[in-house]
């Protein structure tokens, strides 16, 4: 094993964007529904185990549960049930070697661990507030259209004032996509949009209110995480290309850091934005475990093609199963090590620089963006 | 040679989308015009032989005609003429090792083999009905605008009722692109559009009628092959990005299988769709021989990055020259073997899984989608 | 070292698109501002040295200044200052081994070398006229709206009539992007647009006038270089996708050669255009040095995936610092050699073909497009 891999294996990663783990034992349908971005497809003959991420689970997680590498799905699930979710969680997160988790608490169709439960004894936990969830809670409580803007702002301020909150997040990519008017909407425009939305109900997907949400994020002053690229079938992928945000990124230059999450297959577009804007950062979370350790190096190589080394962050974007928290970390460590070691071996990069890139991307870039305090 | 390559070489491939071979001997201009997606460029100093596909023809086809690898174009064409097209066809298709051909019979600017002639003694042949050709034949026969919808449906039903038909195909990508209204058009809308089109004549490129064609495909109930991505200069490539189809794919969920053909350079977008929709599949046909065996592994690696292994199919999309039916197969076998063997060697994939992926993608996924009967 | 690399190292490259070098010694802020496509970000903690291009400068340029490979930035800049810009220029351009420079003289926010000064004794220099600069000079001199079209044409004709001019260039990608009406605008339309623009002032970014500029380029009859893809924060990257030009490329077929510059991350789209249109060419300049020699092979492999070998050109797109003229050449030589030698070693390509591809892409394709005369 090379020196780069050793450094990566020894590093306590900062996972700057992830979710909790389901607090229940999972039967096969439940587990399979959590290891795909598709819906479950019973009767289709397509099991999520028969995909790159399924192969990676059997290869990298099975040994941690005491099984052979590449154990069959049935055996894997039986052993998982035998150990119980708490022990699986303990083993997999223990092996992930993550030192800090920043947890998006605004998406939980299942009962999942709190940030503190996720992190356990070994790691620190911080919280990321999903602004769409805040807005929808405001609507659910009942608010007059003309009072929506103030009520949303007050609720967001309250949410980010909670101990341990280090960032906000938006899923505008899912709701409207990024081909939005980049200007801050006026009060009257917001009031009218709120009237329409509150009358109609449902999730926040009005373009004016989504813009308003993004500008409210600017006012809050915390780093803003943005879903871009890859996700589930609710996306229109081409509208989640972060290049569509360029006008808005110009407008908000000098205010808050913007963290482009996932990005694949637009990670080169994201790299361009991180290269030209001081306040833009990226990761390839979610893609890391879906492509698996066998392919993570190729994706990271594209993401790092032009990107300043202080601009790439690590995240798993794991949701639901501890397998993904582990696989994100393994993919990152193994993929980045392969790519940097190859350059060191070819004398295109010196070892000292490779080790700095490891520390920066795996931990310090997040520490600089989020300025974690002792609060946890 | 590794075990994966041996399995691929032994496998009778299902080429789920291809065309016939020109039934004539070809002089240099005629041959060159068939090995490029460009028009012929006489006097430009650019020969299609001086491209990746030309290099691949000389490397992989020349030995099958009894020449040295990398034989010069003149020598290759002289030998080809000496053997005659029937013998060239026999040798190259024999070496391709394809067991089943699904042949799009709706595109034949030249005189080409029938599906049965293409397959010969060794392989089975099935037919794919190109719906634009059906619609244009209806118009050519003469039809009243208000009767167009019924006449098209009747003609399509008749076409797919022929023995050996296993799928329909649309080239909507060429005619309008995919940024279409995803909803089924109403009868009056179709009638008006038909009136305009029938008065104007020409090929079917009215957006309402293209939508109507796609929805008629849904009614027919057979798998639908869709050209996406790479093709000739008649494309507007960015409008052939399959991500633009997402709304329509949602609408038709639970009806017919949709096979995204070619996809390059949007194969990651296609992989996303195949990952989140149960009814969506993809291939990288056409790209396989144009990039050649030297690069097929890289393209397949991107196409398979997140794709469930039951969702990738093999096709050559060969048209006109048997060289392409051979090269598609060689690129697929060589490219997939390289990628899977590397993962087996790194213990990221077990050999049993690699062999299942070989059988699935090379043959069984197509068998499951098209449910070939004994009819041939 | 393989035979391909030897051939590439021995070849006098034609750099068909680059800029001059700043004629002054540079302190750290000035040097850093020239080695990034971002603005300078003082206080951000992000130095352009901590990026792939910074690593490449320290690895490949430091030894040419008499330092160890990977020398730290401080040491590098101190040595650079000690030698003075003329000596640095002399050493780096000497090592680049470029035989011909085509220099875009229409962009010079700094005092830079003339084409002849850039080339020095060892190389020939030709000039590329940036049409937006011509148009803006016409406006600055004062012109009546109705006279704008004639005045611009006359000024452009005069500019391209200067000795040594071999091409024109447009930065339409920056000004409007490529989603333009592909038709030639009428006189009245141009007059009205000129009236608006001349009244408003500022740079040429009116869509009608940008179209008019592109059509004027067609009339001039010289090869047209077009910025596409990667550049600074002034871009809207997604509007610089060259596929958006397809309608216009159809319209002008049979007139002038069009050279798509940079292209990354749309180099596959550019490759498609170069494959289907006789008059379209591409390069991956700018990307070559920003990704660095460690990654140039991967980018070139994508750019050459389907591209006819007579259609890829070499350019550095270096601006400001001689480091970039050197790095472009090193990235091209090293990257192309790695990719071709690997194919030769695998017997996918014969050595004679590899050597032809070297000569074509590194020099002869440009010679054929630009038809350099003895004038220099």
Automatic annotation (TrEMBL), chains A, B, C:
Gene Ontology MF terms in the entry: hydrolase activity
The protein, known as: Amidohydrolase
Originating species: Streptomyces mangrovisoli
Phylogenetic placement of the source organism: Bacteria, Bacillati, Actinomycetota, Actinomycetes, Kitasatosporales
Amidohydrolase-related domain segment(s): 143-370
Superkingdom of source: Bacteria
């Amino acid at each position: 094993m090379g020196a780069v891999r050793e450094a990566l294996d020894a590093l306590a990663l900062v996972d700057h964007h992830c979710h909790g783990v389901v607090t229940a034992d999972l039967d096969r349908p439940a587990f399979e529904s959590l290891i795909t971005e598709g819906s479950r497809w019973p009767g289709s003959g397509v099991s999520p185990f028969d995909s790159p991420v399924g192969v990676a689970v059997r290869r990298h997680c099975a040994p941690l549960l005491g099984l052979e590498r590449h154990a069959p799905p049935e055996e894997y699930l039986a052993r998982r049930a035998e150990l119980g979710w708490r022990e699986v969680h303990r083993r997999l997160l223990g092996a992930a070697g993550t030192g800090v988790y920043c947890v998006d608490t605004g998406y939980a169709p299942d009962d999942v661990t709190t940030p503190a439960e996720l992190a356990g004894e070994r790691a620190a936990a911080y919280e990321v507030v999903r602004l769409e969830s805040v807005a929808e809670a405001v609507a659910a409580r009942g608010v007059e259209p003309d009072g929506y803007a103030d009520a949303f702002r007050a609720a967001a301020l309250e949410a980010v004032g909670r101990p341990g909150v280090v960032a906000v997040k938006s899923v505008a990519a899912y709701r409207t996509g990024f081909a939005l008017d980049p200007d801050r909407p006026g009060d009257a425009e917001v009031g009218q949009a709120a009237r329409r939305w509150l009358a109609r109900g449902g999730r926040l997907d009005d373009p004016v209110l989504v813009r308003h949400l993004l500008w409210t994020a600017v006012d809050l002053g915390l780093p803003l995480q943005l879903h871009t690229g890859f996700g589930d079938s609710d996306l229109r992928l081409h509208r989640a290309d972060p290049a569509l945000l360029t006008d808005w990124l110009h407008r908000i230059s000098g205010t808050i850091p913007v963290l482009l999450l996932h990005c694949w297959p637009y990670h080169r577009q994201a790299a361009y934005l991180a290269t030209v804007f001081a306040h833009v950062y990226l990761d390839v979370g979610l893609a890391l475990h879906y492509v698996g350790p066998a392919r993570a190096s190729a994706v990271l190589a594209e993401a790092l093609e032009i990107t300043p080394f202080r601009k790439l962050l690590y995240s798993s974007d794991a949701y639901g199963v501890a397998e993904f928290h582990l696989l994100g970390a393994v993919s990152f460590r193994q993929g980045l090590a392969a790519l940097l070691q190859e350059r060191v071996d070819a004398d295109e990069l010196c070892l000292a620089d490779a080790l700095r890139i490891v520390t920066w991307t795996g931990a310090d870039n997040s520490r600089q963006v989020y300025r974690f305090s002792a609060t946890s």
